[in-house]
## 1
Amino acid sequence: MELLGSFITLIGSIVLFLGALGIFRMPDVYNRMQAGTKATTLGTILFLIGISLGHAECGCFGKIVILIVFVLVTNPVSSNALARAAHSAGIKLTERSVKDDLKSDREMGELK
Amino acid sequence: MRKTKSAFIGVVILFAVWVMLTDLSTQEMLFGGGTALFIVFLFRKKLAVLEDVKLNPRALISMVIYLFVFLWELLKSNFDVAMRVISPSLPINPGIVKVKTTLKSPLGRAALANSITLTPGTLTVEMKGEYFYIHWIDVTSDNIEGATRSIVSNFEKYLEIIFG
């Protein structure tokens, strides 16, 4: 059981590493946030599951479940707030971007 | 009736959290249950947001299905983004698209926006009325209908049953 827990924790840390790499490699703030949000959510969840399996004697499974639910609910909300703030502040998308419906709608005056 | 339902959901959620945080003794249960009732009583006017949750069997079943669909999409999205990050050419094709949702309830929309953020290559940037503006890492369709089909519809059919 402890081995399984360590293995899942290892996978979680790999996911977190890939997220960090993504933040480093992506060209603009929105793409960075993509990598950041998804990888940190799954990475943290796997990490917590690994800990609860590896240390089953502490009886902290319920607490881990609560932590996972909390991360699942708050992580996307915070990244949404950041992306929204970035867009309102006028941070541009990378030049490789195909389209920006939000910007064009703002310019047409459909949004305030 | 609607007030009773949201109060019931509130008590169940608080009590479940309490049970998970503590060990299972009668004393703890009694105290936790009493506190949950008291808190729900204190905030009874603010609980209106829970009124949209449906509690019929069909809604409960789709809640469970939704959870699994969601976790599967989360795994898929991580794999997808990881592949893009590792590959040397960084194959992204990003843009912000507009999608339309048919969900009416605020809680349902919040759940939908969060789910979109955690699924493959999409990130909710702004919500306005019935439109969501979504940053998409790999834009494959440039009209509202096509984007809605590929991003929203998968979750919407379950959330529609749960939140109405």
Note: Residues 57-86 of chain B form the longest helix (30 residues).
## 2
Amino acid sequence: MSTEVKPVSKSHGLNYGIYLGFFSLLLALSILASLTIGAFAMSPLSVLAILVSPLASLLSIDLSAYYTTVEETVFWNIRFPRVVLGILVGLSLAVAGAAMQGLFRNPLADPGLIGVSQGAAFAAIAVIVLSGNFLGIFTLPVSAFVGGVTTTLLVYKLSTRNGKTSIPTMLLAGIAIGTIAGGGIGILTYMADDGQLRTLTFWTMGSLASATWEAIFSIIPLVLIAVIALPMHARSLNAFLIGENISGHLGFDPDKTKIQVIMLSALLVGAAVSAAGIIGFVGLVVPHLVRLLAGPDHRIVLPGSMILGSAVILFADLIARIIVIPAELPIGIIMSITGGPFFLWLLMNRMGRNTF
Amino acid sequence: MSILKATNLNYSVGSSQLIKNVSFEVEEGSIFSIIGPNGAGKSTLLSLLTGDAKAEGIVEIAHQDINDWESKELALKRAVLPQSVSLNFSFKVAEVVLMGRSPYVNGLAEGPHDYEISREALKIVDLEAYWDRDYTSLSGGEKQRVQFARVLVQLCKDSFEESLAGKILFLDEAVANLDPTHQHQVFIILKRLQTQGLTVINVLHDLHLTAQYSDHVLVMKNAQMLTCDTMQKVMTPERLEEIYEIPFRVIDDPETDWPLLITG
Amino acid sequence: MKTLLGIFLAAFSTMAFSAEERIISLGGNVTEIVYELNKEDLLVATDTTSNYPAAAAKTPKVGYMRQLSAEGILSMEPTVIFMTTEAGPPVVIKQLKETGVNMQIVPSEFSIEGTIEKVATMSKYLGEEEKGQKIIKKIKSDMAEANAIISKNQDKKPKVLFILSPRNGSLMVSGVNTQADSMIKLAGGENAMTSFEGFKPLTPEQILAVNPEVILMMNHTRRVNGGKKGIMEHPVLKLTPAVKNNKVITMDGSYLLGFGPRVGQAVKDLAEHLYVN
């Protein structure tokens, strides 16, 4: 009997704008907290003064009375780049995870699952151990990307017959290739000298402590390309969720979607891994949270994951930085001990329904 | 006038040939059924016609090779309803139906008309109240009706009364999981759309439905086409025994204009 | 002119020191020197490898010296940071340099000369050259005693295997270019493993091929795998002359490998273990 045309109800009742606004608010909070809280005590006023001082000096206003030189250096050389790197790494890992889950029609898919992370890690470690340097500051991100793409394409080839990709074969091939890459990492670890080994350990635990402007500039182009290109596949990925063939019937090009989403995700994972090492669970937990709140439509899941991913990484990094002051923990550890149980809880909670 | 023409189709996976040398034409505005025993190659043949698999030989849709069609252009011409659709993500019923509007959406979001026609489609399949329901919580039959609504909004651009000349709907055993009420409901809707010019090509198991609703029938057996003819010429005891290798009786029912089939 | 500059510099360094110094020292050996120079009151933080003397273990920790965080260090408001070239990661060292904080980086050399240089540099900076000289003198006299023991036993050059950690059947052992390698050589022994640099796992077959006459390990390794007892009962190690002759030496890790102010004494101790007992 309810035939009067209700105002067109979007997915999950609320407008996507509200969710994006909410995620942005969280991100803003996380940025604010990350900039003002840290081992080195700075008053919010000093932080504000430092932040606006470049602008103020344009207007010939001198704010230097409100902060010390050390505070200024700490802010611009340590804290600020770290926040920027956190944003880049968080959005990259989260949106890459979201896209892969769509592509594989499996909410548990993760860049680690189909060999991207292992391939990226293998290539980056090879470059570290063999002391390769062919592209300057882009050496590490580009090799991580190449490693990720190569392994993914290999897996893709192995699991594709007559133009059709078998998802189970792809997942199994991904595990196999990931294991092979893991073996390769083992060999490289054996070849590595003490200093390199230390870099590797530092790097396999995942950390934003190495945030420098150089690291940021080296990954920004890769991240920007993917951030702009990936959301363009949102509707196509939606159709993918009901079926690869169906997405073709609906006028999308499944093969193009597949290859582009794989490349773009590998690009993002490569960038993130090269700058901050291996940080797990972001790609799994963040898209989950977005879906839980706003539904599985990629038009909200992709941008939502970007924003929420950055916020989650910044909060996790904040904990990593202040929990054992004046020392700090690798953020990978924080993500594992908070993300792991959260993920288990999700699994238990969802097991009965078998949907996400 | 033919709207679909298949010439010398061959298809194999590994060493087994699933389709051997099949050629036929489908007349525009007809309901065309593909029948045959299990494993005869019916669904494989359909996947060659929809372009899901690439055949040796030529499939022409509206006199143009299927490989030369832009995916998006083709989506405006034909829709496909598979046997079942598995979905691991909690889409709303509305969102699933709205996906049928994909070929008409330029840009990021559907417009008000897309919502209206989707709501109407749900009304047609008796699921209007399900608009906000979680698709994954529905029963198999309900899911299939939602999918039917999805293909309806893909075929009908502006309204369900518009001309559908030149458009094709493919169904792959799409009503197999429905109860008789809804099986017939689907075919009654198809019959109505046929009057608007729609061509229907469907793989069927149920011979009664085939007899009741088909204009033409193509019979597959052992990867080959046994015959392709009008429904009346296929639905004879001799033909049916040849196909299914059991005795059949075919009775002309004076109250209907389709034959009754009795096995044994 | 030169002397004038020297006086000026000396005056300047004393002046710099007379102000409230806040010291962070990174690395067990560097921290030990600070204590030997009696400057522990000025110490505001150390790293996790600074455990000797016992009081050093109780100082605030800025993390492991190879995994430092710039902000954590700066938050202690140090006026000087003592560290060896081992400290890292490089990015953090770079960040610290950019803040202009006073960093005294001493070379990390596994030698007596390197250690003496460390002591000299730090004592000079802290205006305690006299105490520094005393430490250096002690190192030299200990070394003389050690060398006396070694020269008495010149004909013997025992093959020593340093085991970092016995674990799951494979043993992490020291090759060349490690603190352990240097200590073995200083004490007159011969490193049993010379085919590689750093630390690598050793297979049971390799152990027998190497056939060490002495096994050297850190005594905290006991916690990990039964220590000396574990070695003595190890199915393969017990076939080596080292175990058969009960030549398994355990020593405190930071003492044996620290290359701090106690290095001379450690060499002497090791030499005594090798030849006297």
Note: The longest strand of chain A covers residues 160-161.
## 3
Amino acid sequence: MALLDLLLVVGIIAGVYSLLAIGMNMHWGDTGLLNFAHAAFFAVGAYTSAILTTPTPEAGLLAERVVGFDLPVAVGIVAGTVLAAVLGFVIATTSVRLEGDYLAMVTLSSAELVRLVIHNEAWLTTGAQTLKNIPRPMESTVATLPVSYDVFYFLLVWGLVGVCYLLFERMSNGPFGRVLHAIRENDDVALALGKDVTQFKLKSFAIGAGVAGLAGTLWAHYVYAISPVMFLPSITFLIWAAVIIGGAGSYAGAIVGAVVIVLLRQVTRFIPGSVPFSDQMSYLRLMLVGVVLVAVLYYRPEGLLGNAERLQAGTSEGD
Amino acid sequence: MTLLSVDGLRKTFGGIVAVEDVSFDVERQDIVGVIGPNGAGKSTTFRLLTGFHTPDAGTVEFDGEDVTDLSPDARARKGMIRTFQIAQELTGMSVMQNMLLAAQGHPGERAVTSALGIGGTSAFEADQRDQAEELLQLLELWELRDEYAGNLSGGQRKLLELGRSLMADPDLLLLDEPMAGINPDLTDRLLERILELRDERDMTFLFVEHDIDAVMRVADTVVGMHNGAVLSMGTPEEVQSDDRMLEAYLGGEV
């Protein structure tokens, strides 16, 4: 049973990462926006929901936080999603008119800014310390059922992944996605055909950020306790790797990529400490992601589920 | 009735005056050809009209409204649709998707209606597909409807671009060298089609063109440019017989 329990945990993490990858795929895969702020949307979702659903801590030596609302978890999840979308909208408003590389720089620094605010505003977030005792949704109800809480949470997370997958697929394949794809291919054409490019980019950014916020809320309510070090830029880079490995532009690919990344990260955790170079193992584990990424780009540039034909057509010059 | 009124347009890049005091009117259902040798300022004028450049001075009025400060997309929504000199296909999208993108006022272009398929999205989409089919048949691209636009030949891309701009059902269609790279047979049919569209859909055309023959055949009015200014304007015959235009093309001083 121990193995099954472990798989459930890995599965839940993979579900959370899948949601992050779905959001990133809307930004990069559909719209061609270089977003390096994903960790911030993840963090804002997690902290918003945590602060709203925990009571105000009692005064004590370490309890710096003076705010807490003790609201139902459902409220926290919705608020975390919405606030992350708002943050996405705000960051995009300042930067979305920038071209590729500059957008990447502004989003990356915005994300660090958000993390530092969380780190420093201890009255709100407990600062560098851990924000603890985040409630799990329906914990007492699930306790009366013959299944473990992880089974319930696994189904909850993957249920939401399924719903988001369907909605994002439909957006991507519908007229809305068509405009996003046009922007990805060529801004000027979209403008010439009367599409308000900036508005569409803002929407894309906000929606993708929102689903990353949802992932953050689900993460916070699963792990009980969160701290700023969980939201380093490396999360953003892992999600980038997931989207590229899975195949940019494909939502199924984003999910597969996220699962691959989580498996790579979690399975290698159990390499015994007695192997050579075990001291360096944590870095080697991160390097493994890079190796897989390079291998995919070399042997399958469109990604595991990406569209090779489109990539081919996109680079041809005509005659 | 005047549809487009251009008054005193001026544009400089650094120390170079690209366009100087360009003024002309386009009447409704007119076909206006803008000609001139390389460097005459045709393309800059075109970009000023379509909002891709902002003029240093002068105004552009469309349908009685000052659009000088409007962005390209806002002008397009008012019914001024442009094409590009080098066909700008969305190479990673299918021919059909390229066509459907041009639909104006599509209810499904909102995230929610697209995700949930509500608000008349599918009915509108079906109607647009019918229109796209008709145009693609005409342009002999129907068989290629599911092909990525990036796989089309240069001439086919040009045709697709024309078809896509017609999908937007513009009042004024601004064409940047539409005939370049298209075989003469097809050029003839396109010119015929332009004449038909003018009557059927009450369309007005302005095109910048190197193919003087094509301009002379269909244009009602020709605007001849040289060194960033309008040198000669009138019927094709008048402009053609204007010695200054000949001089301009031959590189003489005027």
Note: Chain B touches chain A through 48 residues (CB under 8 Å).
## 4
Amino acid sequence: MNRAALDALLAHWRRHPLQLLTLVVGLALATGLWTGVQAINAQARLSYARAAATLGQDALPRLEGPLTLADFATARRAGWPVTPVIEGRVPGTHLRLLGIDPFTAPPSAATPDLSPEDALTGFLTGDLVFVAPDVTLPEGWPEARIAPDLAPGLVIADIAAAQAILGTQEVSRLMVLPGVRPDLRPLTDLFPDTRLVQPTGSSDIARLTDSFHLNLTAFGLLAFAVGLFIVHAAIGLAFEQRRPLFRTLRALGLPARRLTFLLAVELAAFTLISGTLGILLGYLVAALLLPGVAATLSGLYGAGVADTLSLSPVWWLSGFAMAGIGLAVAGGQSLWQLVRLPVLAPAMPRAWARARAATLMRQGIGGGGLLIVAGALALFGNGLVIGFVCLGALLLGAALLLPPMLSGVLAVGASRARGAVAQWLWADARQQVPGLSLALMALLLALAANVGVSTMVGSFRATFTGWLDQRLASELYLYANDAEEAAEMQAYVIDKVDAVLPVASAETVLEGATGDVFGQVDHPTFRDNWPLLDAVPGVWDRLATGEGALINEQLARRTGLWAGAEVDLGRAGRQQVLGVYSDYGNPLGQAILTDTLFRQTFPEAVTTTFGLRLDPADVPALARDLTERFDLPPRRIEDQAGIKAFSLNVFEQTFAVTASLNVLTLGVAAFALWASLTTLGAMRVPQVAPVWALGMTRSRIALADLGRALLLAAFTAVLAIPTGIALAWVLLAVVNVQAFGWRLPLLPDPAGWLTLAIWSMVAAGLAAALPAWRLWRMAPADLVKVFAHER
Amino acid sequence: MNVRALIAALWLALPLHAQGFAGLGQAADGFALPTPNPTFDFPADLGAHDDYRIEWWYLTASVQDADGQQYGVQWTLFRSALTPTGPQVWMGHFGLTTPDAHYTGERFARGDVGQAGVTPAPFEAWIDDWSMAGDDLDALTLRASNGEVGYALDLTAQGPLVFHGDGGFSVKSASGQASYYYSQPFYDVTGTLDLPDGPVSVTGKGWLDREWSSQPLEADQEGWDWFSLYLDDGARLMAFSLRGGEGFHYASYIAADGTMSPYYGDALIAEPLETATVAGRNVPVRWRLALPDRDIDLTVDAVNPDSWQATLFPYWEGPVTATGTHTATGYLEMTGYE
């Protein structure tokens, strides 16, 4: 009996292969995009965790502040089991340098093996460092041995060697190892300017990149939601169409419980098939996007991420779980109705869910309420998660408002229509709104996300390139290997150019977080070209006399310190904020001091970078001359254009992944629309047949269908554009500030929006084309049958 | 950090058997070498000699509580130069032995930051919070803890420094490998042991060894057995026997007034009488130690046969008692047992 019933149930899918395809592909797409994003996030987090666990740094309390190796010895002599760590970026690269003391560092699988002969001596004398397999060090570096277990992008050196490389006498922190005796004098008493930080379980890099991953996750969820619209539509339709079958099976004696069980088995089978497909798709998506993500993370945050996937069984299981959850959400309602279905209930052709004023009212109230919530959160909320909740409320609110607004507009259209055909067209469109509303909502979400993200990226790009043009004022940039070469270079070029602008920097603690301090000479280049977001009067003169510092927008926003306030610049002490400058593409705090003050504070900082001002026409000649004279590889002499290209490249990579996901989401939405129109087309035959019988030709009806789809898509696009602009505003003014620390102006892009609207029409047209064509080619006999069938 | 692998590189670059215990048989290229007829310069020679490959400050004490219970205390600081011009690396060993337990501790330090070191005047040798300090060697305080147990002892010298071998030039093999070696064997010790069951007040005798060299062993010498004994007549006896190769025996008989007489070769008899299985190895824990020229013939017994120092280079080190022609307490060190 089971077999017979199951055969009967499955026969439906054999008769409706397109519906089957919709269901499987929809679920696979939803699962695939979600699991793909999760795979990327998991891979990145794995890399961070390995980096953080290199010395058990994620699990140990640490003492931070101005500390030296002498302080380390003092702490050890006081009985404290501590080990020093220095952390920084390898100059001129995105590589992370970790200096350790091999004698006191805790055992850790990721730390290098110093047992080969001479390894320890070389390590202690700075002639040997250990690097992750993906690392290539610049020329002139000591011997690098590959340590396979090191986290990507990591270089490990002895602490004294690392201090020499980073040009500092300080260490970043002392890690407190297990085995602290209770009678010890507190570390913060021994070193009054320090603070003890308890482990939080997440590394700095993980915190820094949280926003990026939240971003990806949000996109993954959006794609998942859009995919579920498709699945919901397909399952709902299949259940509706099989109602007569269910009734027949029940009448033949199949218990309701058994029938429900069989349908649940069917759903489980779909979960397995679609889940598998989705996971494969997710793997593909992740593998394609991961190199871009890795490049972004390294370019933006200096975070090393392996660009090959290594997936855990949990990830595979979570893929199936998401597919299962998706089907349960999409099919649960239908199953529930089935359980309560009376045996002899008439098989009413419900033609999907009928539009009811009450439903529309509820959607309208819910949507409006969500928009109000979104507005309140945008204005008064704080924090990255709130920013994303605001985004979610905005999108969902707009989606919920779509059906009542569409219905209203169509009602107005119907009331103004003249003639029977026109009135029928409007009424028919209105009648279809409930059936299409889910697909249209999906289209709205995808379009709004597209408008929002492309507006954000466009605003960012315009602001960023303008800012680069201003900031990169020097015509040529020179990088010396050491102080000696720097002096030679400076002496050589001084008569050949209008000005030599040295760039010196040092890493220190700015208001409690690692950041860079730059020394800047007083020169019209800066006075003329540096855009300041906020400044005290006479800012450049006061900077030149050493009265204070300029800080970047990130530091200003994080600390809430703007022009006129006092800021703690670590070794540079407390300084008045003279101005705030924008500093895109840099997640860390930064400050600028006048050159003389900088040199007093950081006497050990070596200036190896110079900007040269000269007539742009002379640049190629001078570049050739310098290249030959100092035997410079290309990366050590760069002209303005080269640096701009590099910076823009980092920027483009940052948003490449977002853009890819955007396109995928829009594709999924178009598919949803197509699936809905196709199934609806099949169901509408009984409504179309009387119109045909009254004398309207199939071609006119088909054209009317096509036109209606375009109208609905156009209306959705019109609603999506303001939603997208609101979305872009939230991204620029709320999420970006929280995630990156900078706020950008919103630059409208009407041409882009129009293009997108046209594309959505094209998508809708394509989606409607097949159902319309089918209608056109439908055999008159099929239409006549409608009247013969007793439905 | 894989400290074991790390320090193995440091002390033991080549296989043990080929190069003697703990790499002490390595060639001394570029390092200073001990020469005969040394003249010592104090207090400078209390401090470190960075141009020699290896050096140690080695204190052992054999103490008793009010009930006559025997305990042993060890405090050692090693210095090793990786090349003749550095870097310097330091290692500390902690030992505390009771009749039924043995506690070990080990510390490592880089040489250039002050985490470990030695200053000659006022004298202090330290690594982390383990220290041995005083104005000079006549009165020292000694502190260390391994986190579980610890000790704080005061040591007062009751006799002069003693220079072993030929005026402090101590030969270690037939082909002439040697070290500079002097001792203060006359310490009276009082202080407290912090044991798991609470503090225990103790008194007893202590012995400080100072030794430095660049290649103290023949490459084929596997290890040694070293004795320091406080005889009941006030004399002291230091004896060692190097195993492997041709073998090498030496003893310093130190009269109660500090006069030292050296004995080489067969003059010293050191015979294992009984072994115990310690850390999977057969280690002699009962010895016959005899110096017939001085009418000394003793049976030496470990207070605790399990006095195993499970450090990077593991060895046996613990307090002993002796009976026979004399009664005595003292310390025994045995290295190179596989």
Note: Chain A has a mean pLDDT of 79.
